[in-house]
Amino acid sequence: MDLIVAKFGGTSVGDGSRIRKAAQSVVNEYMKGNQLVVVVSAVNNATDELIELSNEAIGGGLTDKQKAEIMAMGELTSSRLFAAAIESLGVKAEFIDPYNDKWPVITDSNSLNAKIDFATTDKKCEGIKNLISQGIIPVICGFLGKGPSGEITTIGRGGSDVTAFLLGHCLSANNVVIVTDVDGVMSTDPNKIEEAELLDEISVEEMRDLATHGAQVLHPHALKYKDPLISAKIINFNNGDLSSEGTKITGPFEGDMLKTVSLYKNPISVIAIVGEEMLKKVGLLADLTSCLAENEINIFGISAGQNSITVFVEKKDSDKAYHLLHSWVIDEDVLSSLSLGDDTAMITVVSPEFIDEPGIISNITNPLRKNDINIVEISSSQTAVVLFVDWKDGEKALELIKEVLK
């Protein structure tokens, strides 16, 4: 007997017939002898409509507490409808919302972007386990939490995905099934490229990066609760079958999903190349990287300005790279010269939460500035910040950054 946590997104409960179809898929699994927990989102667009309605009625006068209570109405309604639909099919179900004593997801008091108290949530899940053991299917509101004073909170966009993986973890589920309006994870957006193909599986890290960079299929924050022992997949609600194949999400995330800071073990050398209007030369960067790749020299970082390109390679390869690139510079009419700089240390900071964290760059760089540590180069993406500092300052910079990110 498996314990399945099935999360139904807003589109999959978009109208009465879809709710009944979703409920039937849950009952079908229950009849196979499996245990079920349902996490349900608000009916499609309901939350946006509630926000728009409140803005029209009240304008900017709502408090965050009032906003959270209004936004919660979508999930409060859909959980009741879903539980009733299951019971109409002959199986016992109980809707669980933050007003219920069995409510499991406990957070801090931040009304609109609450942080989950994992330890307390884990303990509160005993009430859900008791329902399951009685043969009752709990239908739990996604997206919502309960604060320290019993107030409703929300855990941000994509919160229903977070709820599903969080409960899967705390309940030691066998499977987490994300039911949505696509067949699974595609090789790219099928609305843009018709030849997009369905992936049979994708790793947690790949899924996190894809979601962080705009894929709407799953919220990246949810994956930090992906237990390595739990199977997970994304399927289409149109199938009406929780055993559908879809795309399997494999493996655990290696390391701390919140923030990781690391110092590369070896010195990194800087090679700077200059030339007027070099960025107007088509294929210049391709030629540069090919030159080094053909000689098995790895590039650890590269940045381009109007009149310069900076390349970072491991110190052991720097002399070879320097001579190779010198020959290339001489042959290119838009390039004039290059230089081999001092050794640097490379520090990498990774977090899926950076995309939602304003000021992260200044938080990282301010302690370095205050301690007179010069940043040679910095680059960032939606999930990572990479800094190069003087080699002698590497260890100190690492400790300063670790301290500020605690």
From TrEMBL:
Offer one example of a GO biological process linked to this entry. homoserine biosynthetic process
InterPro entries to which the protein is assigned, alphabetical: AceGlu_kinase-like_sf (IPR036393), ACT-like_dom_sf (IPR045865), ACT_dom (IPR002912), Asp/Glu/Uridylate_kinase (IPR001048), Asp_kin_monofn (IPR005260), Asp_kinase (IPR001341), Aspartate_kinase_CS (IPR018042), CASTOR_ACT_dom (IPR027795)
One annotated GO molecular function is: ATP binding
Q: Which GO terms describe its cellular component?
A: cytosol
Carries keyword Transferase? yes
Root EC class:
transferase
Pathway this chain belongs to: Amino-acid biosynthesis; L-threonine biosynthesis; L-threonine from L-aspartate: step 1/5; Amino-acid biosynthesis; L-methionine biosynthesis via de novo pathway; L-homoserine from L-aspartate: step 1/3; Amino-acid biosynthesis; L-lysine biosynthesis via DAP pathway; (S)-tetrahydrodipicolinate from L-aspartate: step 1/4
Location of the ACT domain: 273-345, 349-406
Xref: Pfam families: AA_kinase, ACT_7
Gene3D superfamilies recorded for this chain?
Answer: 3.30.70.260, Acetylglutamate kinase-like
* Reactions mediated catalytically: L-aspartate + ATP = 4-phospho-L-aspartate + ADP
Q: Which UniProt keywords apply?
A: Amino-acid biosynthesis, ATP-binding, Kinase, Nucleotide-binding, Transferase
**Keyword Membrane tagged:** no
EC assignment: the record states 2.7.2.4
The record's section on SUPFAM superfamilies has:
ACT-like, Carbamate kinase-like
- Give the matching PROSITE patterns: ACT, ASPARTOKINASE
Q: Which family does it belong to?
A: Belongs to the aspartokinase family.
Name of protein: Aspartokinase
